[in-house]
């Protein structure tokens, strides 16, 4: 399992490093990266989730156990973070970044890794994970920003953030097609598949370009707190819930890998838009990505042994 994970991580690492190099060398105009992130976030990744969920053979997957495991474990860890808030002794915007770093995940890395490990079954499992995690995480993060962010949201603002998130919409639309038994038209299905496939390399290039390692200075305690939640508390909680749900095999491996993924660069965008601590969020994203490049192969070896 560890060798398979390393092989699956090789293209991920190379694309992230390529993104860092292209940004550093200024090979592309500075405005390209924000537009590429916008294209990925609003078009490509929603197409990936929609196509994967609408066409996946979910009847062969432990969908109920997987979704329940992911949602319950995230809710439990989110409640733990909120309960720890007074002991952290940080201001509201700082707490929003710790919270995002603790429960948000990088879709691009997760889908690529699952596909590398389990092929088409991995993509279907990754789509199910995303369908469970994306709405849950975004709802929780919006609520935390509404309470602790510097730009307080009204009830209407919270509702707007929840119902217009493109990843949530893409996931729910794919689930709807699957539930209703609707097939994708022959001419549209290949286009959606191609757009979804384009999200993986472009998204990883953007992840590399977004890393700002200089911003972590002075923020080691919040970075350590969010990383401990992300790489330790969340996977452990997921394993506990999975054992109660009877989740095993590739579904368990995929669930644990998704819960141990570093936070996404989109967390920085949300922090900037909703009144969080954006520099801290950039630092958390950078260091968690570095941690994951070392920790994921080791963690996956242990996960594979447990799931065998």
Automatic annotation (TrEMBL):
Matching InterPro entries: Mem_transp_PIN-like, Na+/solute_symporter_sf
Location within or outside the cell: Cell membrane
Main location: membrane
Keyword flag Membrane: yes
Keywords (A to Z) from UniProt: Cell membrane, Membrane, Transmembrane, Transmembrane helix, Transport
Membrane spanning stretches: 39-58, 65-84, 123-146, 167-188, 194-211, 232-260, 280-307
Membrane topology: Multi-pass membrane protein
Gene3D superfamilies: 1.20.1530.20
Record keyword Cell inner membrane present: no
PANTHER family for the chain: AUXIN EFFLUX CARRIER FAMILY PROTEIN
Family, as annotated: Belongs to the auxin efflux carrier (TC 2.A.69) family.
Designated name of the protein: AEC family transporter
Organism: Reyranella aquatilis
């Amino acid at each position: 399992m560890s060798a398979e994970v390393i092989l699956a991580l090789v293209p991920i690492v190379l694309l992230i490093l390529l993104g860092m190099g292209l940004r550093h060398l200024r090979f592309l105009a500075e405005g390209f990266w924000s537009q590429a992130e916008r294209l990925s976030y609003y078009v490509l990744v929603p197409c990936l989730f929609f196509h994967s969920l609408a066409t996946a053979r979910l009847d062969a997957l432990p969908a109920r156990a997987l979704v329940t495991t992911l949602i319950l474990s995230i809710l439990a860890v989110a409640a733990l973070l909120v309960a720890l808030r007074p002991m952290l002794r940080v201001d509201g915007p700082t707490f929003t970044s710790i919270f995002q770093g603790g429960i948000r995940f990088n879709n691009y890395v997760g889908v690529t890794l699952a596909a590398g490990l389990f092929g088409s079954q991995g993509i279907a499992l990754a789509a199910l994970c995303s369908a469970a995690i994306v709405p849950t995480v975004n709802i929780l993060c919006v609520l935390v920003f509404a309470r602790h962010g510097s730009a307080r949201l009204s009830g209407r603002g919270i509702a707007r953030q929840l119902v217009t998130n493109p990843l949530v919409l893409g996931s729910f639309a794919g689930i709807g097609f699957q539930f209703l038994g609707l097939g994708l038209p022959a001419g549209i299905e290949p286009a959606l598949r191609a757009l979804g496939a384009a999200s993986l390399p472009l998204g990883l290039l953007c992840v590399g370009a977004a890393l700002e390692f200089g911003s972590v200075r002075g923020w080691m305690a919040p970075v350590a707190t969010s990383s401990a939640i992300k790489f330790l508390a969340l996977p452990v909680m997921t394993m506990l819930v999975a054992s109660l749900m009877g989740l095993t095999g590739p579904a368990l491996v995929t669930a644990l890998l998704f819960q141990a993924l570093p936070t996404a660069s989109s967390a920085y965008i949300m922090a900037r838009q909703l009144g969080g601590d954006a520099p801290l969020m950039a630092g958390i994203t950078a260091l968690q990505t570095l941690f994951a490049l070392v920790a994921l192969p080791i963690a996956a070896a242990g996960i594979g042994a447990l799931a065998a």
